[in-house]
Amino acid sequence: MTKTANGFGRYGLVAVSTYFLLSSVLWAQTRSSAPAAKSPDTPPTTQNADGSIATNAHNDNFVIGNDDVLAINVWKEPDISRSIPVRSDGKISLPLVGEVQAAGQTPLKLEQQIASKLQSYISEPQVTVIVQQINSQKFNVMGQVARPGSYSIANSPTVLDAIALAGGFRDFAKQKSIYVLRQNPDGSEIRIPFNYKEVIKGKNPAQNVKLQPRDTIFVP
Predict the structure, then answer these.
(1) Cβ contact 85:102 at 8 Å
(2) How many CB atoms sit inside 10 A of residue 112's CB?
(3) Selection from 168, 167, 146, 165 nearest residue 156 by Cα
(4) I want to staple 147 with a disulfide (CB 3.0 to 4.6 A). Which of 62, 167, 198, 202 is the partner?
(5) Within the chain, what is the greatest distance between any pair of CA atoms?
(6) Of 169, 175, 179, nearest to 197 (Cα)?
(7) Model confidence at 147, in pLDDT bands (50, 70, 90)?
(8) What's this model's pTM, rounded to 2 decimal places?
(9) Which value, to the nearest 10 degrees, does the dihedral of the CA atoms of residues 75, 81, 84, 89 take?
């Protein structure tokens, strides 16, 4: 066998070269597959159920009302961040911010107002407002039920749900003649009939509509 100056055979040099080449490739693959380190200044994110990353919730459609519960988060400011209900006067109160009108605002608009008030104390404040509980939007149940009154629209109740919340029927309720009064955006009203006897038998289930804010269920 032919030897080199260092005493290694030609095949020995090939084996050593191959080893170092494979080691380099494996090291590069390990580096590329490792998760990137997060910057300490990067705001936290959360994962949805499907594994996707959830971003800050900016809602420019929902209008906040009295008694709604808001989750207010100011990035890196735990003393200001909190869950807080909207008072009966439509306002909330936060440290450094003071009183802010929340009712009548969208979460996005309220975020901007709080951030603006914090700029005197915090450099580039990052504010998130999420509506945790919707208590301001209500529907009404009237007539021959055990507990007539106004109820929260939270969890998208149906007519059947509403009757259960109101404690069920009184003895002489006309269960076939129930109806929902719904206000249209133009101020007009529509009447949606609801036959309890049919619905509980599985007939015409489309009558069991999901309620909207300001709907009134009347049980004659």
Answers:
(1) no
(2) 15
(3) 165
(4) 167
(5) 111
(6) 175
(7) very high
(8) 0.59
(9) -80
